[in-house]
Task: structure prediction
Amino acid sequence: MKRYSAFAIAREALRHHTGWQRAWRSAQPKKAYDVIIVGAGGHGLATAYYLGKNHGIRNVAIIEKGWLGGGNTGRNTTIIRSNYLQDESAAIYEKARSLYETLSQDLNYNIMFSPRGVLMLAQTEHEIRGYRRTEHANRLQGVETRFISPAEVKKIVPIIELSGPRYPVLGALWQPRGGTARHDAVAWGYARACSDMGMDIIQQCEVTGISQKNGVVSGVSTTKGDIACNKLGLVVAGHSGVLADMAGFRLPIESVALQALVSEPIKPCMDVVVMANTVHGYMSQSDKGEMVIGGGADGFNNYTQRGSFHHIEETVRALIETFPMISRLKMLRQWGGIVDMTGDRSPIIGKTPLNNCFINCGWGTGGFKAIPGSGWSMAATMATGEPDSLAAGFGLERFREGRFIDESVAAGVAH
Amino acid sequence: MLILTCPYCGIDADETDLAPGGEAHVTRHGADASDDDFEAYLFHKRNPRGVHFERWRHVYGCGKWFHAARDTMTLEVFGTYPAQTLVPPKTLQTKIKKKRPDWKGFKK
Ligand SMILES: Cc1cc2nc3c(=O)[nH]c(=O)nc-3n(C[C@H](O)[C@H](O)[C@H](O)COP(=O)(O)OP(=O)(O)OC[C@H]3O[C@@H](n4cnc5c(N)ncnc54)[C@H](O)[C@@H]3O)c2cc1C
Ligand SMILES: [Zn+2]
Result:
């Protein structure tokens, strides 16, 4: 693989850009692999990457029913933060955030990580207490966050209205090292690096069955034929229930639609991410100038990647109170993704009832920020067969044991 | 917008008049149940891509709970029926089978 560099741009400029290589090979499945990963979203690709990079396991196939990054990874609003309440969450999200800082260099692919800062507004007394608690927890966890006053909020976000009629801004939890990254680039960068290590990324190939005998997986059936493997990783987000059904077990997961929308592009007006969890709305400005807006998830099971319109209305209505200047903006596009919601709103990483089959799912509405940490931890778990320290708390068995990592109560919403 | 007919008051209720209540026909195990049964009751979801039986509440209407059969891949509603029903009515099951020949049928 030729490296990307300032020199490469100059060289290609001189020869009419005829020398760029394909970022990844388009592969046809071999008969067998050491490891098969189902799902070429960010988490699946990152798992494969760290299997190769950290554990030297490179005879790997990543199987994707659509195109890589076409699931939630390419549909999210790209907020990256690690200011969670529970220790297990803080550890894995902070690992991910710190890996994001150097991911462009590591992958030799510009993922446009932008640590512009994330503000979580406190708009009720209850929220102030909640975020103060998170601030203290974060200090103990080594995650840099600070609870700031309304005046400081106004300084960071001049377009904000502090004294909204229903929900005035009473303060905010500020994580200056949070931010955004380019979602497609994260998928593409990992894919390029995986392909370069000799891994096969097989797109337009749906897994339709899982072959097993006495609790041991021998391979998968796909729309491109049967493929054997020694270890199987299921990393399919909203489709986890479907894959678990093929494997013969059930998950504490329900799939629902989550939507986002962007406005017409405008001049730079907000250079941080603002989340308003009480009213279920959040917003940032993309490099193109669009206001990127998201809200809460729908309440019913759904696989259509299409959400209910009234949720969009609720989100926008709430945000207009806090950002009156967006009331005249035209909204350009709106879309949905199918998110995998667990009972405690925390992810699942680890073993399954089948011996050599591992699962990584349940990231729900907030897994983009976790991609590097999740892949790191999932790779270690698959390589050794036992959950690593980051994954340890997130095993499937925690539900049976009543050992929840309850971020739903901590955050209200999770993005 | 999803529209479900409330089987009690007969109103075609918009989604905004309703509150979703998750999977229906779950066996509610008690404190004397085995760990397996209790775990399954609390956490194991069917979450199918296709025919789904679920609970809804007509919150901004008569306030009652009812059941609905719906396709999670197309959002088509097959029918609704009262909550005091342990399995989906035979006529509804026949109707679904006709529309979805691949459907494996209702299993408790
Ligand atoms: C609207 C929206 C906004 C969001 N905003 C944020 C945010 O701001 N910050 C944040 O951190 N997170 C956010 N998220 C959540 C985040 O997008 C997800 O948690 C994350 O992208 C999940 O990545 P993944 O790799 O697990 O899943 P995906 O990217 O969905 O990848 C799973 C892949 O598996 C494939 N697959 C499924 N079934 C099969 C099969 N049978 N065979 C082969 N392949 C299969 C799918 O096609 C898909 O490509 C948001 C999500 C949505 C929908
Ligand atoms: Zn009614």
